[in-house]
Design goal:
single chain, 229 residues, mainly alpha, 71% helix
Length: 229
């Protein structure tokens, strides 16, 4: 599975030049993993062992439920609930160290997600490929610079593999990534400010010009969180 989800060509992700390319990369990876685990893979012993232990976050539960394969989700939930009971509630809860251990086990179970872990593993490798392509291919450098923007979380995440780049290209890459993120932030600031001004009674007539402000709140949240609100 891990080999297949990293087979998405990185340049293909960057081609649309619409929104954040790293968000598109994550979305495609999530789609592949969710499709995989709600299909025949739910009956593969090694996959079920992992999903039993790790469970899923609310984002990926929602994505699985949208696929309308409720039996697959129910089967995974059935075994994950049993595994959670065994890990968290085995034996009677006691005071002191036993309670602390139980709370920690509950926190670990609540924070774990099979899809997140698979996607994070693949993203790490694909972001390293982004840096490698930037170093080696002039066409990709041009394609990178033509992106609409980089959201804040993915600008931050790109900076990690950039630390291993050839010094000749590292500064240029980080400068280009920073420009994509900051320029869009400045655009959002102006649009959100314009949104607030439109609630002044002097700007509220029939000829009111909202410009790009109407969806500025949603776009700002997506920029800050890497998720559509």
């Amino acid at each position: 599975m891990r080999d297949s989800i990293t087979s998405i060509p990185v340049s293909e992700v960057f081609e649309p030049r619409d929104g954040c390319p790293i968000c598109r990369m994550r979305d495609r990876l999530e789609e592949r993993v969710v499709e995989y685990i709600t299909g025949a893979a739910m009956m593969e012993p090694d996959v079920r062992e992992d999903t039993n232990k790790q469970g899923f976050c609310i984002t990926h539960y929602r994505q699985m439920l949208k696929r309308r394969n409720r039996l697959s989700v129910a089967l995974m939930l059935e075994s994950h609930l049993a595994e959670t009971e065994k890990k968290v509630f085995a034996g009677l809860p006691l005071v002191g160290k036993r309670t602390t251990k139980q709370v920690r086990a509950a926190e670990k179970a609540a924070d774990s997600c099979f899809v997140c872990n698979q996607v994070d593993w693949a993203m790490e490798r694909m972001l390293a490929t982004v840096c490698r392509l930037y170093e080696n291919e002039r066409d990709f450098r041009k394609l990178f610079a033509e992106q609409e923007y980089l959201c804040l979380p993915h600008f931050s995440r790109l900076a990690i593999p950039a630390g291993g780049m050839d010094k000749r290209w590292q500064q240029e890459f980080l400068k280009a990534a920073s420009a994509l993120s900051r320029n869009y932030l400045q655009e959002l600031k102006a649009d959100v400010h314009h949104f607030t001004e439109m609630f002044d009674y002097r700007n509220n007539g029939a000829e009111a010009d909202w410009g790009n402000a109407k969806d500025s709140i949603e776009r700002a949240v997506e920029y800050l969180t890497a998720r559509e609100p």
